[in-house]
Input
Amino acid sequence: MADVRALGPLGMVTLRTDLAAAAGALRDGLGLDVPERLRIAGDTRRGAAWMAPDELLLFVAPGEGGAVAADLGRRLGEVPHLCADVSDLRVGFAVEGEGWREVLAKLSPADLHPDAFGSRAFRRTRLGQVAAAIWPEGDGAHVLVFRSFGDYTLRLLRQSAFDGAVGFF
Amino acid sequence: MLILFCPHCGVEADETELAPGGEAHLRREGPGSADEAFEGYLFGRVNPKGVHFERWRHAYGCGKWFLAARDTATMRVWGTYPASEAGPPDPLRDAVTADRPGWAWRDLGGAA
Output
């Protein structure tokens, strides 16, 4: 079934602010639009993911997080905000190949039907016992969890892939 | 199994994605309040069979608090609304009243 591998180092910046007020700074600084609710603009190389009504997770090049956070902070100026390099906070995994939907759906209560979880979708949910963010990318999906849950999540995903398809999707 | 609509992120969230937060619409009794009022604020909780209002947090999702109106006996859910609301919105009260005429919960209630 699907292949599970760890993504390499990622550059990530968390941005908590009034998202509408930050749209200009985000476009000028990173060339990204504010994603709609439950959506991701761009991808894991360069993108903005909707985490909460007042929170975005920005994907930048590995090692660039600190510089991007500082630059964005300057651009936001007087707009109340929290902007920080969180590249080491979470680890990413890729679930690729036929059956990736079932590998995730077996572990999560989220609706992963192609109609509900198609391209550009970004969903924070539960995988097994831990909180995770999942979104379709490339030939499968990417998964993001807190670093301390990394070992657990990798084994969980591999077990789910090993167990094979149930033929739902 | 409960499925509640998160009014913040628009997800039909499964109960296992949520963290329960107890009774909704508690009014804080701070310094200067009567001992009975303070005790009620700390410990006094209703445990109704029927209409109930409670707090939930979308812990595995957007992390925001919201409130839900639910029947504790039948698990029927009438709706959810953001925790920033001081009381249930009128359409939700009407929906509860349509189903349970004469309902009462704390100082909320529908016309008989």
Q: What stands out?
A: The mean pLDDT of chain A is 95. Chain A touches chain B through 14 residues (CB under 8 Å). Residues 150-162 of chain A form the longest helix (13 residues).
